[in-house]
């Protein structure tokens, strides 16, 4: 199948010669970075391509029907009965002005059921997607549901027509880890029950590995490798797949020992006219042959194909970056730099975003901050920076000096010392300013440089974040996501800061770009002896980069400790659940703890231990419901907020993971 | 006045709408959401530059028609005296109230003055007052709107109530007050109309600022210790320029109306200076006697100018949204 988009009178090829088949009841994963054409595939299947897109060659067959040749009513029939789609953002897939129950019932009514029966069926369907109180949810409007709940309702709607093909386009990308785990489990269970074929589209390799029988790797509109999911990820046979997998921090990798590999170069622009292999310009194995003619599919094992002349050599793909840089290992014993104590923040409406948080960032260390949405991670960062004022009584000091709660009242040197790299560079960089002015302004303001000295430092700075001179005249809109984030990093480092808050700095980026940014952060830390407060929901990243870790839940510190100790366990029951919720590429974890229900509201936190409503290890004595446990030091430097002592948690958790070799090493 | 759309600040300050905004989705990221990885392609989606916008604008027939009419009136305002068939002030009482004919295409008024010449020369005052008043209102309104939107709190509350109070009064009443106090003159009109527009423009600018306010680049600027003034005018202003540009052109149309209305009511350009509004006022009683040309042609002149400005406004708005 080929798809072209017509842009400004020219055809641009978005997909080239993509073919795959999904058997009944099978789950097929499409994985690729942004711009690879994943969603285009999904749209083409139901003929939803935008007006300027068309399928220029090839066929689509769903249950023997070709949506491309169907008439209007037959096409509607196909969309209504045979294929269903679940999108990334449940909030946008539901009609905001219609009650949830009505929306689901409508699907049944279209199938020709009476209104009353439809309502009943909708309720049953909601029960099937594990909504415990379907009657109540049905009377709600979409905005009254949490993300996880809404996505379940969307899945219920998608399954209402008992489709033979269910297309899931990044269905959990917008959800929290523990909620994602539940939704993924749900999809897996429903697939069994309904015997539906699933096309699962994601950029997250681990999610695909967990959910899919077979996987296709899409690069620049071409399927470069295909095969059983586990086999492909364990033994990739295309240099792109190999490179992609190397970009992801794996268990046991740390910034000081293993440098992440990256994929050099950039994705070719849509509509490129490469004669040979699409990946050749970025491939270290590429030879003349690769640039001259496109490689055909090679059989590389049972049911596996790879579109590479050198598929047998792919695993030996030379690294694009040196394997080790010997990053400075912070001993965690540097001087305490930022000390936070009794930090609380209450927003209007009694929402307690942070409650008595205490933490210390030492010089030269990376403190990882982990937690789901609503845990207060970002609020904590904003309070540190002086963008949000904490409640009275909170203590925030930098090198022993108390900090003003308002950045506007902080002296220049304090501003210099504390900087941030925001999550979304599109929002963080003024789109009207050039890169030059974005970077020179902090040099003027914070480093008090001007004239030739400024110019010199500017050149150093852009070199250290690997930008080039030609980028200086551009505006953010003309840069790729990765380059924009480099500009943001350069801005943060302009004044030679002591602490840089990294608020999900790579969550808006593709995997291969993310690796390069992580390497850059590690390099800068080594060169500048800077401390990081690294905020992320991606545990793999936090583990790779952090020396110590703080786990937040509902604005409270649940666990603090050295990174390895927190990951290896024993851990707080919440940390344990968080770890077990995240799919990894390193094989299934044996212990599968699933949290029930949603994260409670910070406006009305549960009594006693705030985690007790979802805790799988809640004590039967009732102490968890009545009293909040203190943060206790169970091992040197390793604190947990739990009524069960760390030593006891060790015994319980070891016992449960004993049968298999799992857990973390 | 056609240079409005070529204003380098304004045109450069356009939203960097990529292909996606043009209804094109080359990456096939259709239903992608906020968490979807953003443009990894080095050759990021080309942004619509000022030049491109210009070309798009010039391709719109509505813009060309509007600009053509406007240009005609600008030429009249600048060189009207040179090519007007008659002296617009010369009274020829013998040929008063003559209907349109070969010698007087648009007829003559009650004092025997050539209507066509009065219309041509009468373009001057309205074309001087309107843009100046609109520029004044835009500058004041932008400053006020930026302060209300960015500073928020008490500033927004107090200024907001004042703006509402002013908006609640009929604009004509406010204008009368000022004109009576200052005495009618070209400059009074500029100031009065500018001040009347200020709260309206401030409200639009405030709304545009509010959408910018939560973006992280403002936090970043605060972390560099930037002062509020700089944040408002150097950081936010360029980003709200498109909204201001549209508001400016919309107000320009209203300003034409306002000047004509005030002149008609006798508070604007004073006789015997030729002016469309005051000419209508001076002659509309003649309608009863059947001297329709004395009123119709100045009215058509006003209508054509308003239409021209609105055609241009629409085109600019659509190109900005493209």
Description:
The complex is a heterodimer of chains A (665) and B (322). Chain A is globular. In chain A, 34% of the residues lie in helices and 19% in strands. Chain A is α/β, with parallel strands linked by helices and 665 residues long. Chain B has helices at 8-12, 50-58, 61-83, 115-151, 153-168, 171-182, 186-213, 216-223, 228-264, 276-283, 293-321. Chain B starts with 7 loop residues before the first helix and ends with a helix. The model of chain B is unreliable at 1-47 (pLDDT under 50). Helices cover 66% and strands 0% of the residues of chain B. The longest helix of chain B is centred in the middle third of the chain and has 37 residues, at 115-151. With 322 residues, chain B is mainly α. At the A-B interface, strand 1, strand 2, helix 1, strand 17 and helix 15 of A face helix 8 and helix 9 of B.
Number of helices of chain A: 24
Distance between the termini of chain A: 45 Å
The share of residues in helices of chain B is 55-70%
Instruction: Please give the largest β-sheet of chain B.
Output: none
In what order do the strands lie side by side in the largest sheet of chain A?
5-6-7-3-8-9-11-10
- As residue ranges, the low-confidence spans of chain A are 658-665
- Tell me the Rg of chain B in angstroms: 24 Å
- Average pLDDT of chain A works out at 85
Q: How would you name the oligomeric state of the polypeptide chains in this document?
A: heterodimer
**Approximate shape of chain A:** globular
Order of SSEs of chain B: HHHHHHHHHHH
Largest interface: A-B, 77 and 41 residues
Q: Which features would summarize this protein structure in a list?
A:
heterodimer; A: 665 residues; alpha/beta; 8-stranded mixed beta sheet; 34% helix; globular; disordered C terminus; B: 322 residues; mainly alpha; 0% strand; disordered N terminus
Q: Layout of helices and strands, plus pairs?
A:
The complex is a heterodimer of chains A (665) and B (322).
Chain A: E1 2-7, E2 10-15, E3 27-31, H1 38-45, E4 53-57, H2 72-82, E5 83-86, H3 90-93, H4 100-110, H5 115-128, H6 134-138, H7 147-160, E6 165-169, H8 177-194, E7 197-202, H9 205-211, E8 214-219, E9 222-228, H10 229-234, H11 239-246, H12 288-292, E10 298-299, E11 305-306, E12 336-347, E13 351-362, E14 366-370, H13 377-385, E15 395-398, E16 401-402, H14 412-417, E17 418-421, H15 425-428, H16 435-445, H17 451-464, H18 481-493, E18 499-503, H19 511-528, E19 531-536, H20 539-545, E20 548-553, E21 556-562, H21 563-568, H22 573-581, H23 623-626, E22 631-635, E23 638-641, H24 646-657
Parallel strand pairs in A: 3-7, 3-8, 5-6, 6-7, 14-19, 14-20, 17-18, 18-19
Antiparallel strand pairs in A: 1-2, 1-4, 8-9, 9-11, 10-11, 12-13, 12-15, 15-16, 20-21, 21-23, 22-23
Helix pairs in contact in A: 4-5, 4-7, 5-7, 7-8, 16-17, 16-18, 18-19
Chain B: H1 8-12, H2 50-58, H3 61-83, H4 115-151, H5 153-168, H6 171-182, H7 186-213, H8 216-223, H9 228-264, H10 276-283, H11 293-321
């Amino acid at each position: 199948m080929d798809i072209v988009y017509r842009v400004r009178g020219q055809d641009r090829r978005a997909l080239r010669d993509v073919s795959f088949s999904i058997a009944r009841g099978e789950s097929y994963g499409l994985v690729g970075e942004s711009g690879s054409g994943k969603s285009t595939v999904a749209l083409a299947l139901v003929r939803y391509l935008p007006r300027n897109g068309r399928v220029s060659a090839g066929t689509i067959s769903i249950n023997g029907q070709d949506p491309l040749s169907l008439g209007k009513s037959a096409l509607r029939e196909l969309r209504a009965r045979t294929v269903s789609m679940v999108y990334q953002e449940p909030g946008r897939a539901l009609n905001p002005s219609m009650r949830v129950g009505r929306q689901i019932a409508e699907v049944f009514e279209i199938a020709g059921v009476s209104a009353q029966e439809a309502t009943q069926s909708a309720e049953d369907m909601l029960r099937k997607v594990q909504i415990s109180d379907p009657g109540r949810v049905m009377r709600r409007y979409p905005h009254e549901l949490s993300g996880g709940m809404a996505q379940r309702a969307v899945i219920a709607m998608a399954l209402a027509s008992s489709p033979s093909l269910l297309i899931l386009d990044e269905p959990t990308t917008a959800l929290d880890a523990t909620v994602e785990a539940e939704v993924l489990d749900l999809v897996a269970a429903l697939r069994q029950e309904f015997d539906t074929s699933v096309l699962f589209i994601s950029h997250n390799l681990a999610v695909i590995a967990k959910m899919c029988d077979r996987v296709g790797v899409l690069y620049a509109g071409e399927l470069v490798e295909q095969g059983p999911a586990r086999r492909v990820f364990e033994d990739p046979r295309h240099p792109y797949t190999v490179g992609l997998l190397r970009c992801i921090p794996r268990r046991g990798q740390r910034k000081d020992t293993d440098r992440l590999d990256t994929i050099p170069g950039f994705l070719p622009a849509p509509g490129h006219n490469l004669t040979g292999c699409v990946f050749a310009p970025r491939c270290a194995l590429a030879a003349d042959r690769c640039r001259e003619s496109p490689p055909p599919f090679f059989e590389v094992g049972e049911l596996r194909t790879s579109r590479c002349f050198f598929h047998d050599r792919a695993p030996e793909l030379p690294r694009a970056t040196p394997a080790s840089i010997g990053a400075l290992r912070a001993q965690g014993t540097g001087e305490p730099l930022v000390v936070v104590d009794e930090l609380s923040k209450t927003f209007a409406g009694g929402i307690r975003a942070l409650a008595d948080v205490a933490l210390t960032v030492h010089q030269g260390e990376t403190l990882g901050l982990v937690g789901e949405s609503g845990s207060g991670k970002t609020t904590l960062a904003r309070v540190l920076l002086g963008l949000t004022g904490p409640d009275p009584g909170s203590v925030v000091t930098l090198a022993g000096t108390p900090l003003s709660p308002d950045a506007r009242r902080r002296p220049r040197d304090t501003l210099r010392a504390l900087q941030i790299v925001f999550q979304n560079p599109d929002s963080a960089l003024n789109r009207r300013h050039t890169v030059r002015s974005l970077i020179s302004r902090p040099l003027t303001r914070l480093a008090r440089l001007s004239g030739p000295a400024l110019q010199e430092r500017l050149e150093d700075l852009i070199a250290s974040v690997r930008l080039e001179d030609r980028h200086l005249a551009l505006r953010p809109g003309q840069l790729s996501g990765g380059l924009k984030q480099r500009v943001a990093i350069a801005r943060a480092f302009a004044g030679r800061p002591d602490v840089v808050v990294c608020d999900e700095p790579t969550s808006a980026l593709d995997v291969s770009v993310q690796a390069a940014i992580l390497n850059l952060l590690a390099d800068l830390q080594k060169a500048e002896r800077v401390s990081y407060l690294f905020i992320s929901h991606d545990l793999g990243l936090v583990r790779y980069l952090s020396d110590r870790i703080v786990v937040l839940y509902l604005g409270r510190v649940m666990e603090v400790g050295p990174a390895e100790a927190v990951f290896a366990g024993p851990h707080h029951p919440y940390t344990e659940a968080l770890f077990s919720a995240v799919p990894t590429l390193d094989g299934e974890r044996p212990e599968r703890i699933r949290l029930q229900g949603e994260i409670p509201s910070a406006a009305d936190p549960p009594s006693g231990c705030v985690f007790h409503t979802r805790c799988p290890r809640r004590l039967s004595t009732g102490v968890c419901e009545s009293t909040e446990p203190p943060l206790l030091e169970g091992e040197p430097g390793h604190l947990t907020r739990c009524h069960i002592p760390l030593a006891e948690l060790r015994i319980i958790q070891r016992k449960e993971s004993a049968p298999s070799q799992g857990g973390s090493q | 006045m056609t240079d409005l759309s070529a204003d380098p600040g304004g045109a450069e300050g356009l939203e960097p709408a990529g292909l996606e905004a043009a209804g094109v989705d080359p990456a096939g990221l259709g239903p992608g959401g906020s968490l979807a990885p953003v443009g990894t392609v080095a050759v990021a989606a080309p942004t619509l530059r000022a030049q491109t916008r210009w070309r798009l604008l010039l391709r719109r027939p509505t813009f060309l028609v509007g600009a053509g009419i406007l240009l005609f009136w600008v030429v009249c305002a600048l060189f009207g005296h040179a090519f007007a068939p008659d002296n617009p002030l010369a009274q020829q009482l013998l040929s008063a109230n003559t209907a349109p004919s070969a010698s007087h295409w648009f007829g003559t008024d009650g004092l025997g003055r050539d209507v066509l010449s009065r219309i041509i020369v009468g373009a001057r005052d309205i074309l001087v007052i309107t843009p100046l008043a609109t520029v004044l209102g835009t500058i004041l309104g932008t400053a006020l709107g930026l302060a209300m939107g960015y500073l928020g709190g008490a500033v927004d509350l107090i200024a907001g109530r004042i703006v509402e109070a002013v908006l609640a009064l009929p604009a004509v009443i406010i204008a009368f007050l000022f004109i009576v106090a200052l005495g009618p003159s070209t400059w009074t009109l500029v100031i009065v109309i500018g001040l009347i527009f200020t709260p309206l423009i401030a409200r639009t600018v405030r709304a545009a600022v509010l959408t910018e306010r939560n973006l992280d680049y403002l936090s970043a600027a605060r972390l560099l210790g930037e002062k509020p003034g700089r944040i408002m005018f150097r950081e936010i202003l360029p980003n709200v320029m498109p909204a201001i540009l549209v508001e400016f052109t919309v107000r320009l149309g209203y300003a034409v109306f306002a000047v004509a209305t005030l002149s008609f009511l006798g508070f604007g350009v004073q006789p015997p200076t030729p002016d469309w509004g005051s000419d209508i006022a001076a002659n509309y009683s003649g309608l009863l006697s059947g001297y329709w040309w004395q009123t119709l042609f100045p009215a058509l002149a006003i209508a054509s100018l308003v239409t021209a400005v609105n055609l241009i406004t629409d085109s600019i708005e659509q190109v900005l949204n493209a």
